[in-house]
Amino acid sequence: EGCTPAQVDKAIEKFGFAMGPFRMGDLAGNDIGWAIRKRRAVEKANLRYSKTADLLCELGRYGQKTGAGWYDYVPGKRDAIPSALVEQMIADHRKELGITPRKVSDDEIVQRLVFSLVNEAAHILEEGIANKASDIDMVYLTGYGFPLFRGGPLCYADTFGLYNVVTAMKRFAANPNDDGAFWQPAPLLARLVADGKSFT
What we know:
The structure is a single chain. The chain is mostly helical. Helices cover about 55% and strands about 0% of the residues. It has ten helices and two strands. Strands 1-2 form a two-stranded antiparallel ribbon. α1 (about 5-15) packs across α6 (about 105-125) and α6 (about 105-125) packs across α9. The longest helix has 21 residues, at about 105-125. It is globular.
C-alpha cells in the first residue's frame, strides 16, 4: 500500500526488535517461505496472501545467500542496502492490483505486526495450547526477540489497552486492500474487551 521493506524494518526495529521481518527473511532465506506458500496453495486453494514475496523469489532473490533479496548485498558483507529493483517490483505489482499508494505511519506498521501476534496468541490461549498469557510472552521474549522492555506481545497489548488493540484491528479489517477475516478479533480477545479485562 505504499511502504518499502526498509520502512517496515526500521519501524519495528525502532519499536525494539533487533531485526525487521524483511531483513530476517533475507537472513533465513526467502525461498523457505516460498516453498511453504506453494505447499499451502495446494492444501488451501482459497488462501489469500500477498504475492509480492513470490515475485521476489521468482527473480532468484532468496536473500543473503544469493547476494540479493528484499535488499541488495555486497559480497562478503551483511549490510542491507535498499534495492531500487525491489522497490520498482513492488510499485509495479501495486499498480497491477490497482492499489493507490498511501502514506503509512510507523505506528500503523508496528500495530499491524504486533497486533497480529496478539490475536493469534488469543486463539492459542483459547484452544488450550498455552495455559496463560505469560507463557506466550516468555516464548516471544526468549525465543523470537520480542523487545524485553515491552514485556511480550500480550503484556504490551494490555499496556496499550485491549479496546485500543481491537479498535485498530477493526480499522485494518475495513481496509478494502486488506483481508478482513484475518483481522477478526479472536473470541477470547473480544470477550476480554467486552468485560473490560486484560490478558494478565
